[in-house]
């Protein structure tokens, strides 16, 4: 078995986002914002363009007026923890790095220099010396099946799958293609305190081969935030097998339009450029000249893209959901070369081009696809540090050097970090509550043994270890031997 996009090719024999900056979006209360955005979109379809401009300006003004301040803003009463004497990579443009951070309860209160942060700490605060270690926002895997395919992933229980994700530094997962039964399972886990990281589910709309009627299962639900740890975020559409589309343009366009009009975010897969064209046509048909920043529809995999398609994605803001382990994890597989040969030159795995063109990009693992890869050194497949290493070096597990066309599309360590943090939060309209380290945001964070931005692109990146994973101010993973970095050992299940 190989990674997801390669499974699509069965064997023939037997704004300027040049540095992946965070994206602006809604900051109104979630339910109010969703209602406003939906009504504005419907009005703009029938109103003159001048009305659309005025309404957009109104929402933008609301967003700006509610943007979180950079100045320290201590929050409600709660356990206080100060981490200081470290390198804090915030993923915030206005304050990219800091030395210290103050956490109150489940939120970040102050980010700044050691002196600034320590001055705001209360007499009972836990003071933890990072001794030069690095803190980053918690990683968010925006395309995975870690929990829903728990058996396939080699875990005996859901709890084991969640624990493994936390040990790797993931504080959030987007579970693509869930069904009604698994949604019930997630809700039960959440009620029991067993969801120790944040999960966004995407409801599968069709069978993988379109061999059954699409139906209307989505009408029994609506996008819902069940708790701070669980939300039903959107819908997922399967599209292809090899280069054969499962459906025609008209059928897909009508389905996408129906989901869009019903208020759903849509995640739809495309590997080759032919499928990409059909998907883009369907999304444009649904949007009707509206900006995708309101809806945040996304294309999964986005492996082969022509110059024209890339420009279209940038213009309307379609999110590219890419697997950062590609194409390195497919090096040497003839199906990758089949795709390269059939597509226009330079159109495969264009991660750097996507970012530089201003396409909103999110990076992920697609685990457990790819678990059969033997990693003899460093973190396991699908771990964020492994994905960062692959995105930067494009080196295969056994050291096979990348081909020249692969290196042309390598990205920087900072870009890779953003794709798994602040950009990932944007994909579920959460860029104002998590994804970066700033006052007022959730205390979802990871402590690393070293700063990946200062390590030369190479094998040494694989030496970076996840020492602590914190979700909502709770320590959910503390590497043995590093207990002094962990303010207590309270987990979500313990706290509840």
Tags for this model:
496 residues, TIM Barrel, Urease, subunit C, domain 1, 3 domains, nine-stranded mixed β-sheet, 30% helix, 20% strand, globular
Structural commentary:
30% of the residues lie in helices and 20% in strands. It is an alpha/beta fold and 496 residues long. The chain folds into three domains: 4-14 and 140-426, Alpha-Beta Barrel (TIM Barrel), CATH 3.20.20; 30-65; 80-136 and 444-495, Urease, subunit C, domain 1 (Roll), CATH 2.30.40.10. Strands 8, 9, 10, 11, 12, 15, 16, 17 and 18 form a nine-stranded mixed beta sheet that branches. Strands 3-2-7-19-20-21 form a six-stranded mixed beta sheet, with helices on one face. Strands 5-4-1-6 form a four-stranded mixed beta sheet. The relative contact order is 0.16. Residues 1-77 have low confidence and may be disordered.
Helix and strand layout, with pairings?
Elements: H1 4-7, H2 30-46, H3 49-65, E1 80-84, E2 87-89, E3 97-98, E4 100-104, E5 107-112, H4 114-119, E6 126-129, E7 134-137, E8 139-144, H5 158-168, E9 170-178, H6 180-191, E10 198-204, E11 224-227, E12 230-237, E13 240-241, E14 244-245, H7 249-261, E15 265-270, H8 273-287, E16 298-301, H9 307-316, E17 319-323, H10 334-342, H11 351-356, E18 361-364, H12 384-393, H13 404-407, H14 413-419, H15 422-426, E19 445-448, E20 466-471, E21 474-478, H16 492-495
Portion of residues in beta strands equals: 15-25%
Shape by Cα distribution? globular
Provide the helix percentage.
Answer: 25-40%
Evaluate the radius of gyration: 22 Å
Q: How many beta-strand elements?
A: 21
Which CATH class of the largest domain applies here?
A: Alpha Beta
End-to-end Cα distance, whole Å, is 40 Å
Largest sheet features:
9 strands, mixed
Count of alpha and pi helical runs? 16
CATH topology of the largest domain: TIM Barrel
Class computed from helices, strands and strand pairing: alpha/beta
- The total number of structural domains is 3
Nearest-integer average pLDDT: 82
Residue stretches low in confidence (pLDDT < 50, at least 5 long) are 1-77
CATH architecture of the largest domain: Alpha-Beta Barrel
CATH superfamily grouping of the largest domain? Metal-dependent hydrolases
């Amino acid at each position: 078995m190989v990674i997801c996009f390669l499974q699509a090719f069965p064997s023939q024999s037997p704004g300027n986002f040049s540095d992946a900056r965070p994206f602006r979006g809604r900051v109104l209360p979630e339910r109010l914002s969703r209602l406003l955005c939906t009504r504005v979109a419907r009005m703009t379809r029938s109103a003159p363009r001048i009305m659309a401009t005025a309404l957009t300006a109104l929402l933008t003004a609301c967003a700006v007026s509610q943007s979180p301040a950079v100045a320290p803003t201590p929050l409600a009463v709660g356990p206080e923890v100060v981490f200081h004497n470290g390198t804090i990579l915030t993923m915030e443009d206005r304050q990219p790095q800091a030395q210290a951070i103050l956490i109150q309860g489940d939120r970040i209160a102050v980010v700044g220099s050691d002196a600034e942060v320590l001055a705001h700490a209360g007499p009972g605060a836990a003071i933890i010396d990072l001794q030069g270690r690095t803190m980053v926002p918690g990683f968010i895997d925006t395309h995975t099946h870690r929990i829903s395919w728990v058996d396939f992933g080699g875990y005996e229980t859901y709890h084991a799958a969640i624990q493994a994700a936390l040990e790797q530094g993931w504080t959030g997962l987007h579970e693509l293609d869930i069904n009604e039964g698994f949604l019930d399972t997630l809700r039960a886990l959440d009620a029991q305190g067993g969801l120790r990281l944040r999960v966004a589910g995407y409801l599968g709309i069709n069978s993988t081969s379109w061999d059954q009627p699409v139906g209307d299962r989505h009408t029994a639900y609506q996008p819902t935030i069940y708790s701070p740890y669980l939300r039903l975020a959107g819908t997922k559409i399967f599209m292809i097998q090899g280069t054969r589309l499962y459906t025609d343009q008209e059928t897909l366009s009508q389905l996408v339009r129906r989901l869009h009009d019903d208020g759903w975010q849509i995640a739809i897969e495309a590997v080759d450029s032919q499928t990409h064209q059909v998907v883009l046509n369907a999304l444009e048909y649904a949007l009707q000249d509206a900006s995708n920043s309101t809806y945040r529809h996304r294309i999964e995999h986005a492996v082969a893209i022509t110059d024209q398609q890339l420009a279209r994605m940038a213009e309307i803001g379609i999110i590219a959901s890419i697997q950062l382990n590609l194409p390195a994890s497919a090096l040497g597989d003839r199906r990758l070369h089949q795709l390269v040969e059939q597509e226009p030159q330079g159109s495969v795995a264009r991660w750097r081009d996507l970012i530089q063109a201003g396409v909103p990009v999110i990076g992920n693992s697609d685990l457990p696809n790819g678990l059969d890869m033997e990693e003899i050194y460093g973190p396991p497949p699908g771990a964020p540090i492994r994905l960062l290493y692959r995105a930067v070096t494009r080196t295969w597990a056994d050291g096979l050097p990348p081909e020249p066309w692969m290196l042309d599309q390598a990205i920087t360590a900072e870009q890779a970090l953003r794709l798994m943090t602040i950009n990932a939060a944007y994909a579920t309209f959460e860029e104002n509550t998590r994804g970066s380290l700033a006052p007022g945001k959730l205390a979802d964070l990871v402590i690393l043994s070293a700063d990946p931005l200062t390590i030369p692109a190479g094998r040494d990146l694989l030496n970076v270890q996840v020492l602590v994973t914190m979700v909502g101010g709770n320590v959910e993973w503390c590497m043995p031997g590093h207990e002094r970095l962990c303010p207590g050992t309270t987990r979500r299940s313990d706290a509840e």
